[in-house]
Amino acid sequence: MKIFMTGATGFIGGATARHLVEQGHELTCLVRDRSKASELEAIGCTLVDGDLSSRPRLAEQMTGHDALVHNAALYEVGIPRDRAPVLRKANVEGTANTLEAALEAGVPRVLYVSTCAVFGNTHREIATEDFRRPDLDSPGGMEFTSVYEETKYEAHQIALNLIKTRNLPCVVVQPGGVYGPDDHSELGSTIHQFLDGKLPMVPFHDFGTGLTHVEDIAAGFALALDKGEVGECYILNQDNYTMRQILEMVGEITGKKVPKRNMPTGILKALRPVGPLVGKIMDQPPNLAELISSADGVTFWADASKARRDLGWTPREAKAGLRDTLAAEGRL
């Protein structure tokens, strides 16, 4: 297929682009900064300059393609308040522009990359695709743990609405927590701090997340693009863990001992006024209040039985994937 892709220069996007090219697909990648796209050029992708702000321009660039993979999004948690409009423009307005451009261009198949974060805090429940957020009917309104979660929730609703009202030929994928070589997320940062001996205590020990190798996420995207049913959502999540369980797996692989003590959240709460300074020291985001609200006792747990059954998705076990990652990073 001739595929138009957004977000191909990122962590998940890069892995997806490589996987699709290896499958024999022809990729056109929308890029804002060509200096970050040298790997895409090296594997044979066609680069087109632009962003998600101009619907007519996007429609023109997509015309003639067999499929769209809309992966572009800003993933930032613990952001300064002045970053919120930037996330909204990229994640909400950018998604609306891209998906409506696909309709205008007559693209026959669309893959939209959502996230398990749209379920919100599952409160230790394990969500399936039809999971209903506990706060949907709350008199006080929905309680989002972060601007990222809020904007991706709105973008998810935009995709579902376009499927329902305008027959957008779209399949939705919802990855959970993702890891792999060169992962610069908060999860990746915490693992690296542990390996470097910089964690005297385990932070957010009961934070619950999915854990799937980035290459398996890319394979799931390709399967959904090929086999997914229009209008359906597919969770991509190998299994669910707490932060302590993840570090214990890393410790078993490397022989490093995990700290016995858990970091009291009160310590981080007390440091909120000097969040930017603490963030630099601890290699964490500057907005500690948002970081705490999105991680302290929060679970983003989900079940990928549907993708395993209907798409034939077979992700590697977490410990094997972590071993692959640590080996690739020279940690073993």
Features:
alpha/beta, 12 strands, Rossmann fold, 13 helices, 332 residues, three-stranded mixed β-sheet, single chain, 42% helix
What do these coordinates show?
42% of the residues lie in helices and 14% in strands. The radius of gyration is 20 Å and the shape is globular. It has a 7-stranded parallel β-sheet, with helices on both faces. It has a 3-stranded mixed β-sheet with strand order 11-8-12. Mean pLDDT is 92; it is low at 274-281. It has 332 residues and is an alpha/beta fold. Helix 3 (55-62) packs across helix 4 (84-105) and helix 6 packs across helix 8. The chain has a domain at 2-180 and 211-240 and 301-317: 3-Layer(aba) Sandwich (Rossmann fold). Strand 2 (26-31), helix 2 and strand 3 form a beta-alpha-beta unit.
Number of helices: 13
SSE class: alpha/beta
CATH superfamily of the domain at 2-180 and 211-240 and 301-317: NAD(P)-binding Rossmann-like Domain
> pLDDT below 50 for ≥5 consecutive residues: which ranges?
274-281
Helix content class: 40-55%
What's the pLDDT, averaged over the residues? 92
Q: What's the β-strand tally?
A: 12
| Largest sheet data | 7 strands, parallel
Strand fraction = 5-15%
Q: Predict the CATH topology of the domain at 2-180 and 211-240 and 301-317.
A: Rossmann fold
As a whole number of angstroms, the C-alpha radius of gyration is 20 Å
The coarse silhouette is globular
Strand line-up in the sheet with most strands: 3-2-1-4-5-6-10
**Secondary-structure element series:** EHEHEHEHEHEEHEEHEEHHHHEHH
